[in-house]
Amino acid sequence: MYTTAFVDLPPLRRAAGTVRLPGSKSISNRVLLLAALSEGRTVVRDLLDSDDTRVMLQALQTLGCQLQRLDATTVAVDGLGGRLPVPQASLFLGNAGTAMRPLTAALAVLCARHGGTFELSGVPRMHERPIGDLVEALRQLGARIDYLGQAGYPPLRVQGPAALQLQAPIRVRGDVSSQFLTALLLALPLAAQTQPITIEVAGELISKPYVDLTLKLLARFGVDVQRSGWQRFTIPSGARYRTPAEVHVEGDASSASYFIAAGALAASEQPVTIEGVGLDSIQGDIAFVEAARAMGAHIDGAANRLHVRRGAWPLRALDLDCNAIPDAAMTLAVLALYADGPTTLRGIGSWRVKETDRITAMATELRKFGAEVEAGADWLRVHPLPAAQWRAAAIHTYDDHRMAMCASLAAFNPARLPVRILDPKCVAKTFPDYFETLWQVVQADPADIPVLCIDGPSASGKGTLAAAVAQRLGYHVLDSGALYRLVGLAAARAGLPTDEAALADAAVVAQLAELARTLAARFEGGHIWLDGCDVTEALRSEQAGAAASRVSALAPVRQALLQWQRSWRRLPGLVADGRDMGTVVFPDATLKVFLTASAHARAQRRYEQLRARNEHVSIDDLLADIEARDTRDRARSVAPLQPAEDALLLDNTHQTLDESVETVLAWWAQRRPFGA
Questions:
Q1: In sequence order, what are the beta bridge partners of 427?
Q2: Residue 343: beta bridge partners?
Q3: CB of 36 closer than 8 Å to CB of 60
Q4: What is the C-alpha to C-alpha distance for residues 8 and 338, in angstroms, rounded to an integer?
Q5: 3-class secondary structure, 206
Q6: Does 54 share its domain with 195?
Q7: Which among 253, 250, 239, 244 is positioned nearest to 292, based on CA atoms?
């Protein structure tokens, strides 16, 4: 998961391949609550692992529910059977509406029956998301709920006991959020032991498919709600939650929309295949498929799988009531940039009370790309953006996961401009690995993938600096020095000599070049592996460094590694550390830095590193070795130690690592098109 301040997407050209979706957030949190309210154990499989499900799991544990993590996506829930073993607690629910609203309703009913005091709060944005209509409905029931801040909004205090009034229908507004009705549907079976309970919806119910999803899940747990249109719902007398023993969570249909869109934009030859959700999904957002087809996408469905290809181009404009697909409709707003006319999305008033005011946010951010956008109380109109009018933009995400994921689709723009997503970690709410998953199915032209090269003499700290810069940018890092150390180590293990005399033998050099060409190495999780063995520590020895210095001077070895090094130019970008990175391997690199320091400073740093590893050497010997290596490296005919003509010089003799990182990032910002 990206934890960087931003992620830069290079211009994307093609899409193909297979993605496996994370579990649906809407299903995951509903199922967790239903399992907790039921009698018996429920095993929940393919559960979404995200911020929203984590706060729900934590809340259930706080309430006394026993949970057992069976693997990364499977949790066993021992239900409470409609009881409250914990009499009081404070629950922090982040920005998860799918936790705040249903838990408020469930606790209101449980407290009324069994007593207790519970406080529910969240992040500041949650305290701006309305809950008053749900609270008023619960108060009709006789529940005791107090606002701890602004009336109509969390935080709340729920307490009991209270006398429940079950005779008259419970009325709730349906035109602000369907989650209010869903919360009542999930909670009221706990109070329907002796008589039926009726809920009446005031106004037009929005997001009906989400309510239908709730009804289907209730039936899985033994409660069949009678529905009269979308205005009247009756929970039968004697309703009781019973575990189905095992539940599989579908892949998230809202998350599928981004990959459907990627296929519609750029899957010309091979399809984008989406696993985890199919056309028979119980989720309302699967209707996004029909909207994408209307815009021209070719979509085939199978059981639990979708195949998407680009069809009509440009995409066809839409005028669509999106009341049934409010989350997935956000993806249509970005697809509209690629259409043949203005696209109008209607019935999206609920956007204004989501993680942010999504109508305002979407209009603001699409305009940064150069688009003409009109907005109203519950509609948005997006005009297509000709290639000549696109602008590179840094997109603010408002701590809204869907803003970040939607904006990534702008990287397919015909102007071949990069896109910056600010605060990409917000996707953790529903899809923590979204960007890593995106890289699996999209491709960019190599020349469009940015590269930052860092070179310098031995012990200048270029490897450490490269790793730190890469971490800040969210880029891959290529330590070419480690490659030559690997060649030296592999030679030693194969019994090939690397001393100066041996390297005068053309046959030995040819063997070393072949060894380099077939190097079975991988870099993973900060460790380096050779032939299946972790050699991270072995590569740090002075002997490995000396061998690397010798074999790296061999032109056949460097040539053998060239294509392997270039293959590291992967999305979203690369920081490459090494001698000829900016001159031979990546001569078109966006930024080249030549890092240096005095020989005395480098010797002192190396001395301290070795002492930390309990290796005792003389600092005078280290200084002599560094000076000798500098002389040898400057004089050698292959990849001599010298900066590229367009490199920027950075002397870090008196700089800390953090200061060097900030210097390089400032230079990098000057080379990117996003401004300050």
A1: none
A2: 382
A3: yes
A4: 21
A5: coil
A6: yes
A7: 253
Residues with Cβ within 8 Å of residue 106, at least 6 apart in sequence:
33, 37, 183, 186, 187, 190
Half-sphere exposure of 426 (CA within 13 A, CB side): 23
Among the listed residues 474, 381, 492, the one whose alpha carbon sits nearest the alpha carbon of residue 436: 474
> In angstroms, rounded to a whole number, what is the distance separating the alpha carbons of residues 299 and 288?
11
566 vs 540, residue with greater confidence? 566
Average pLDDT, the chain: 94
Assess whether 467 and 437 both reside in one domain: no
Question: Among 78, 133, 327, 400, which one carries the catalytic annotation?
Answer: 327
Pick from 559, 556, 557, 553: nearest CA to 632: 553
pLDDT at 676 over 70: no
**8 A C-beta contact, residue 155 and residue 148:** yes
Give the pLDDT confidence of 311-353 residue by residue, as tens digits: 999 999 999 999 999 999 999 999 999 999 999 999 999 999 9
Report the alpha-carbon distance of residue 239 to residue 227 in Å, rounded: 15
Distances (CA, A) of 287 to 159, 271, 599: 40, 20, 66
For residue 522, is pLDDT > 80?
Answer: yes
By the 8 A CB rule, do 601 and 630 touch? no
Q: Beta 144-147 vs 156-160: how paired, if at all?
A: antiparallel
Quick one: pLDDT at residue 636?
75
Together in a domain, 271 and 300: yes
- What are the residues facing 88 on neighbouring strands? 117
Is residue 292 a part of any domain in this protein? yes
CATH number at residue 581: 3.40.50.300
Q: Do residues 202 and 173 both lie within one domain?
A: yes
Task: Looking at the structure, tell me whether residues 500 and 394 fall in a common domain.
Answer: no
Residue 561 in domain = no
Which residue segment(s) compose the domain that 346 sits in? 6-22+254-445
Q: Which of 248, 266, 288 is the last residue of a domain?
A: 248
Closest CA to 461 of 659, 314, 266, 640: 659
pLDDT digit string (tens) for 138-183?
Answer: 999 999 999 999 999 999 999 999 999 999 999 999 999 999 999 9
Dump pLDDT digits (tens) for 370-392.
999 999 999 999 999 999 999 99
Query: How far, CA to CA in Å, does 317 sit from each of 296, 327, 339, 382, 415?
Result: 9, 19, 5, 9, 20
Task: Report d(CA 95, CA 55) in Å as an integer.
Answer: 9
Q: Could you tell me what percentage of the chain is helix, strand and coil, using 3-state DSSP and rounding each to the nearest 5?
A: 40, 20, 35
Does residue 558 lie in a domain region? no
CATH number for the domain that contains residue 53: 3.65.10.10
Q: Are strands 272-275 and 17-20 parallel, antiparallel or unpaired?
A: parallel
Confidence class for position 608, pLDDT limits 50, 70, 90: confident
Active-site residue flag, 327: yes
Same domain, 580 and 629: yes
Answer yes or no: do 324 and 242 share one domain.
Answer: no
**Could you give the number of structural domains in the chain?**
4
Cα separation, 151 vs 135, whole angstroms: 10
Dihedral angle, C-alpha 438, 439, 442, 444, nearest 10 °:
140
Say which amino acid occupies 510: A
Find, among 159, 181, 154, the residue nearest to 170 by Cα.
181
pLDDT tens, 3-30?
999 999 999 999 999 999 999 999 999 9
Name the pTM for this structure.
0.89
Place of tokens 């008259």: 168
Point out the domain boundary residue: 233, 248, 263: 248
Of 233-237, 298-302, 552-556, 609-613, the poorest mean pLDDT is in 609-613
Share of the chain above pLDDT 90, in %: 81
Whether 109 is in a domain gets the answer yes
Please tell me whether residues 15 and 36 are part of one structural domain. Answer: no
Give per-residue pLDDT as tens, 421-478: 999 999 999 999 999 999 999 999 999 999 999 998 888 889 899 999 999 999 999 9
Whether 663 shows a pLDDT value over 90: the answer reads: yes
